Amino acid sequence: MTEPGGFPATTPIGSRVEAEGYVAMVCFKHGPPRLQGIELEWTVHHADDPHRSLDAEQLSKALGAHAPTTLVPGSPQLPLGRGALVTVEPGGQVEISGPASASVPRLIEDTAADAAQLTALLHAAGLVPGDHGLDAFRPPRRILTVPRYAAMERAFQQLGPHGPRMMCSTAGLQICLDAGEADQTTTRWRALHDLGPALVALFANSRRREGSDTGWASARTEATFGTCAPFTEPPPLDGDPAAAWARTAMEAPVLCFRRGHNWDAPAGLTFGAWADGALPDDRPSYEDLDYHLSTLFPPIRPRGYLEVRYLDAQQGDGWIAPTLLLTALMSDPAVIDQALAAAEPAAGRWFPAAREGLDDKLVLQAARDVVDLGTTVLDRTGVDHELLDQVATRLHCIVDDTHRRRAS
């Protein structure tokens, strides 16, 4: 395997500066914004009792030949009918990720078909996908035994309870968008972040954890932000996002030291220090750096494209509304400018949005304005008018219901 710089992935990295340059190059790829992608994730429960623990054998039987090798070593991991691959998170959450598409209608159709197929596989085994962004019934419990997750769990446990929750109990909706041309990337990066609090609140549904009310509208967000702060929190938005992300990647702790059977990293080791020779007898390779990047979990993760990770998983086909809304808002530079203005009252209010949801006055104001704008440009996605009307109605109902409840 050869990395984008033209050298083998196993080539040792000479310094932190060299590693930063590589991260900035591969994580922010420029070009016309034309592709979209969706990743859907669910917690998995027994149909007859959502409180019952799930085990790896039950899930592997349900997924059959579609199971990933992390769950079933040697599995062929066959794609679902429309091309999505099934992956499994440490606590048994299932995720589907299909090919990116230049056609939003095709993306919606294919994702819906593969989601239905996965749901049918689970139902046949007496299992059902969860309806929320956080397991409302069970404590976190890791069922995958691969070295990656064992090392990450041990590292996160030293920081508090949120890491194991994030790994084993959360489920999200991820929307993937191109970074855009070089002169657009900074604005697109800021817009996706500034829209975050309003969208987190609009689609928050993870208030309960282990049978109790957490007091957070999105306790999934609480868990993800608290996993390994500040690296799992929203970043500062000043300056060049590629350079800032490269610095963040260097300052983040190494979670998986892929040597031998135990992947626990040396205590306190950051990737920047490793690249600068902190372990003289073991310098990291570009393959190690790529793996390190996969262990970072910010609200938006640059992976050559921009992976929006801050939305709770939605019940049923509820993922369609946030997907179309965000895709429409990011469809054109002029619309993005309007979206930035609509989102401005709540920009940066991530924690109030996650705790209070739309009960936060400024977040509600931004959410209302974002929905008003978004529903006027939904037709830019190209989906049929019947679906557009359904999505617009759903979005307006969310904010209108909040207004009525606050007024009563």
- Largest β sheet strand count, sense and barrel closure: 6 strands, antiparallel
Percentage beta strand: 5-15%
Q: What's the tally of helices?
A: 16
Distance between the termini: 62 Å
Estimate percent helicity.
40-55%
Total beta strand runs:
10
- What is the average of the pLDDT values? 96
Side by side, the strands of the main sheet go: 3-4-1-6-10-9
Helix and strand succession? Answer: HEEHEEHEHHEHHEEHHHHEEHHHHH
Radius of gyration: 21 Å
SS-based structural class?
A: alpha+beta
Give an overview of the whole structure.
- It is a single chain.
- With 408 residues, this protein is of the alpha+beta class.
- The protein has helices at residues 16-27, 56-63, 104-124, 147-157, 162-169, 185-194, 196-202, 219-226, 241-251, 271-275, 286-293, 320-329, 333-343, 350-356, 361-377, 385-407; strands at 36-42, 44-46, 85-88, 94-97, 127-129, 172-178, 208-209, 212-213, 300-302, 305-312.
- Helix 4 (147-157) runs antiparallel to helix 5.
Layout of secondary structure:
Elements lengths: L15 H12 L8 E7 L1 E3 L9 H8 L21 E4 L5 E4 L6 H21 L2 E3 L17 H11 L4 H8 L2 E7 L6 H10 L1 H7 L5 E2 L2 E2 L5 H8 L14 H11 L19 H5 L10 H8 L6 E3 L2 E8 L7 H10 L3 H11 L6 H7 L4 H17 L7 H23 L1
Antiparallel strand pairs: 1-4, 1-6, 2-5, 3-4, 6-10, 7-8, 9-10
Helix pairs in contact: 1-9, 4-5, 5-8, 6-13, 7-14, 7-15, 12-15, 12-16, 13-15, 15-16
